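go over both lines:
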Amino acid sequence: MRTERDGHGGDATPLDTARLKAAVDAGILSDAQAHRLTAFWSAPDTPGGLPSETAADAMSRPDAEEVRFARGFHDVFVVIGLVLFLFGLGFAVGQMGSTALTAATLALAIWGLSEYFAKRLRLALPSFVLTVAFAPTFLFACLALVSGDETLGDLFTQTAPPPGLIIPVTFVGIAGGALHYWRFRVPVGIAVVAATLVFLAALLVEVAVPGLLDRHLPWFTLAAGLAAFAAAMRYDARDPARETVASDKGFWLHLLAAPLIVHSVLALTVSGLDELATGDALVVIALFVGLSLVAVLVDRRALLVSGLGTFGIAVGNLVAQANLSGETALAVTLLILGAFVLLLGSGWRRVRRLVGRPFAGGALAPFVPAFD
């Protein structure tokens, strides 16, 4: 995972990596240029000074959809310590104080830890975990402070605090998450802020028209998913070659948008997934194929991953109608799913060229990597 002021964190080479990182921090080199320079320096005897092409290199940077979570097991080790420390702190404060005090203490601790591990050391995985944890914790602390309930309760019930109090406090909570993102510039923070904005939108809708959200929840989540998808595409448009931090921001927004879109569309088109009729199973498969085409066009796999489970349920439903035993039907379903993922994964670039050729040079061109 990159941060907006992150440097390259590759293996030790004769190249002075500290100076290289300083050049990235100063804006002299981009993250991608630092990566290529390190590769060049570590393999001077190969033609052109670059390593021979590997299976990973054979896929272009955009198609590879790189996301850097950690630079080594040191990141994992630090995260284990962070989780243990925060859980211990929360349990200790919870024994002495209220829910609001516990959440506020944790939010303060997360911010302090972010100053060291995200701002100073710039460790990828710890920065990710701390960023994901801060916004909901701070928002929860703000809401717990005004709820007057040790368990926070249900903000959408008649006993909840008045909207004139809850909504401003929610704005404060979201502003805190946005401030954390602005301070530490961890790409996943943009998706965290977007998720809290979805919560605020749900709260505003429920306050304006009580009961509307409950009656039309799939439409609301679909609108939220499409808004997140549009924001993700704007970041993709800024970096179609997937070389800068904008690509990472787009990835996390796609990851937020995908389940909202997939499950909303399914809720609006089929009655339920518990016992799919043959017609509903075929509808689910057709929807998955359509979402797969979108995923291929925009060169993002989040939609595929989000819909894969539902696709498996639909395929399993059809397989079960062949009067196979439960174990055999499960094995056949898993084989079909695995074969689909492997075939699409291994032929991703060829599929993109085939599907995307009619769109080359059209309206999608500014938003997605090249098809050729």
